[in-house]
Design a protein that fits this description.
Blueprint: H1 3-14, E1 23-32, E2 35-45, E3 50-54, H2 61-68, E4 76-81, E5 84-86, H3 91-97, E6 99-102, H4 114-118, E7 125-126, E8 129-130, H5 132-145, H6 163-176, E9 181-185, H7 193-208, E10 212-216, H8 220-226, E11 229-234, E12 237-243, H9 249-258
Parallel strand pairs: 3-10, 3-11, 6-9, 9-10
Antiparallel strand pairs: 1-2, 1-4, 4-5, 7-8, 11-12
Helix pairs in contact: 5-6, 6-7
């Protein structure tokens, strides 16, 4: 066999190369004095999917998202973006990559209207003046693209909006800034049933548009509603990352409280978590 034939055979046997995950963590650890908040965490976050991050209080969820958001640098390990090693020295570095985090307080100004909030710090100018018309159109088009129809006017003050509407504005702001990974911390906390449904539908639409989404939530009903994959943290270690279909609620609770899974998942799940019984 010639060298060319050998090369072709090698390519054919290897098959097409799978695209790199949008975000990858490899052996990421973080300590605060004697407290080990994260231990050797390996996690892939694909584009176009919702990854739910579950864990009890103190499991390391907040530390993980703040590390991915650039607030804290890991003590050990690597962060890869589109398969390339990156080092973030602050939130601006994360935002430049396309990573946006929406915390529970949403970081919105109640005394400003929707347009002003969506363009805060990134106002458009025309001949030295604010280009109000352009900003209004972009804000309206972004909300419409996300099927947000409950907002009366883009000139409505954010302080007058419901919790679900405020969450929608925060998401639309991230989408307009061309975010590729959106991290949402307890997005349905303190929301009513109708508002929760609206926010969950919004998360699903984001994934369908190719945006990677990480959702941190204590509400397992919400997790099962929107997640494609569920990652469970226990005492700073990642103890399971599997498709939602391979989990049931009892399995998640057991992982969250013990870090292992002694029982078999219920028949509704159709399988056993791939890496049960140990930390990555």
């Amino acid at each position: 066999m010639s060298d060319v034939q050998e090369a072709v055979a090698a390519v054919e046997s290897d098959g097409p190369t799978a695209p790199a995950p949008l975000l990858s963590l490899r052996g990421v650890s973080k300590s605060f004095g004697p407290v080990r908040a994260l231990t050797k965490v390996d996690l892939d976050v694909p584009a176009g999917q919702v990854t739910a991050l579950a864990g009890d209080n103190g499991a390391g969820k907040s530390t993980l998202i703040k590390t991915v958001s650039g607030l804290w640098e890991p003590d050990e390990g690597d962060i890869l973006w589109d398969g390339r090693h990156v080092r973030m020295h602050g939130p601006r570095d994360a935002e430049a990559l396309g990573i946006t985090t929406i915390y529970q307080d949403l970081a919105l100004c109640d005394n400003l209207d929707i347009v002003q909030n969506m363009f805060l710090g990134h106002e458009r100018l025309r001949r030295g003046l604010l280009d109000e018309g352009s900003m209004e159109r972009s804000a309206r088009e972004t909300l419409e693209s996300l099927h947000v129809t409950t907002v009366r006017s883009v000139r409505q003050q954010v302080g007058s909006l419901s919790g679900g509407q405020r969450q929608s504005v925060a998401v639309a702001k991230a989408v307009m800034s061309r975010s590729r990974l959106l991290i949402m911390d307890e997005p349905t906390a303190a929301l009513g049933v109708a508002q929760t449904t609206m926010v969950l539908e919004l998360i699903t639409r984001l994934a369908r548009q190719g945006i990677g989404v990480i959702v941190i939530s204590h509400n397992l009903n919400d997790v099962f509603e929107v997640a494609d994959r569920i990652a469970v943290l226990y005492l700073g270690g990642l103890v399971a990352v599997v498709p939602k279909e391979e989990f049931d609620r009892a399995s998640i609770v057991e992982y969250m409280t013990t870090g292992t899974l002694e029982r078999q998942p219920g028949r509704e799940t159709g399988g056993t978590p791939a890496n049960a019984g140990g930390r990555n």
